[in-house]
């Protein structure tokens, strides 16, 4: 005679379901707390001088941080324009994510995850403010809704201002003002076209690329970008930084 498996006691099943329900409730509370924190930080960072997660990490490990908050009006338009042209030419057109560019990069990505080429300035700003630096599809997936949110609630000008004040330009060097003074011994408002393009082309690899002592590769990239600055006007209308 075939024996059938006995069903677990009702009390044990109820206990298991109760444990799962409690776990789901805790997970829901955690998600709501994280979302609430992000909404609060977004509101605070809209008017404050926010740090990046890299800056927070350096402070936590007692490493030096050089960041001198500078309003976008006091940053050379040459640098603003160069960063837009180089990092995100459709910055003024998209809503935080350049879906066509992202799709192309994802199609060509390796197992390590999508490259910087998929990132818009809002995505990089979201990463710098809220996420970790290493490449992964998980981080990239989190960047997307955060970038869309930032682009919805902040102006393009504010996103650019925050990005230029938290971008890493070398070990412990954050923001345009600190970078200009560290590499060229001048204010970010006084940057020449050559200096602005050197700083811009150092952004993808600020640890290895030194704008103050550029190698031939960095000089070549910067020279090519400098030749494009005269045609930047159609790409930078949303930040409205007058040429000086």
Automatic annotation (TrEMBL):
Alphabetized SUPFAM superfamilies for the sequence: Lysozyme-like
Q: What class of enzyme is it?
A: transferase
How does the protein associate with the membrane?
Single-pass membrane protein
- What are the alphabetically sorted keywords of the record? Cell inner membrane, Cell membrane, Cell shape, Cell wall biogenesis/degradation, Glycosyltransferase, Membrane, Peptidoglycan synthesis, Transferase, Transmembrane, Transmembrane helix
What is its subcellular localisation? Cell inner membrane
Record InterPro entries:
Glyco_trans_51, Lysozyme-like_dom_sf, PBP_transglycosylase, Pep_trsgly
Q: What function is annotated for this protein?
A: Peptidoglycan polymerase that catalyzes glycan chain elongation from lipid-linked precursors.
Q: This protein is called what?
A: Biosynthetic peptidoglycan transglycosylase
Q: Which organism is it from?
A: Alsobacter metallidurans
**Gene name of the encoded protein:** mtgA
């Amino acid at each position: 005679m075939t024996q059938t498996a006995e069903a677990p006691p009702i009390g044990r099943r109820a206990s298991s379901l109760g444990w799962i329900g409690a776990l789901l409730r805790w997970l829901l509370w955690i998600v709501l707390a994280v979302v609430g924190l992000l909404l609060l930080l977004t509101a605070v960072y809209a008017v404050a001088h926010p740090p990046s997660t890299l800056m927070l990490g350096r402070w936590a490990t007692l490493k030096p941080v050089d960041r001198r908050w500078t309003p976008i009006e006091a940053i050379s338009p040459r640098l603003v324009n160069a960063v837009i042209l180089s990092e995100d030419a459709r910055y003024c057109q998209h809503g935080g994510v350049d879906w066509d560019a992202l799709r192309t990069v994802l199609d060509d990505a390796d197992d390590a995850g999508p490259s910087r080429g998929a990132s818009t300035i809002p995505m990089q700003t979201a990463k710098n403010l809220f996420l970790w630096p290493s490449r992964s599809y998980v981080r990239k997936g989190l960047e997307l809704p955060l970038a869309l949110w930032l682009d919805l609630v902040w102006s393009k000008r504010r996103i650019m201002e925050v990005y230029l004040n938290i971008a890493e330009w070398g070990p412990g060097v954050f923001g345009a003002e600190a970078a200009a003074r560290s590499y060229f011994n001048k204010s970010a408002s006084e940057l020449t076209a050559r200096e602005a393009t050197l700083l811009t082309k150092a952004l993808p690899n600020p640890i290895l690329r030194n704008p103050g002592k550029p190698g031939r590769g960095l000089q070549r990239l910067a020279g090519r970008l400098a030749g494009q600055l005269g045609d930047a006007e159609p790409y930078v209308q949303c930040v409205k930084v007058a040429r000086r």
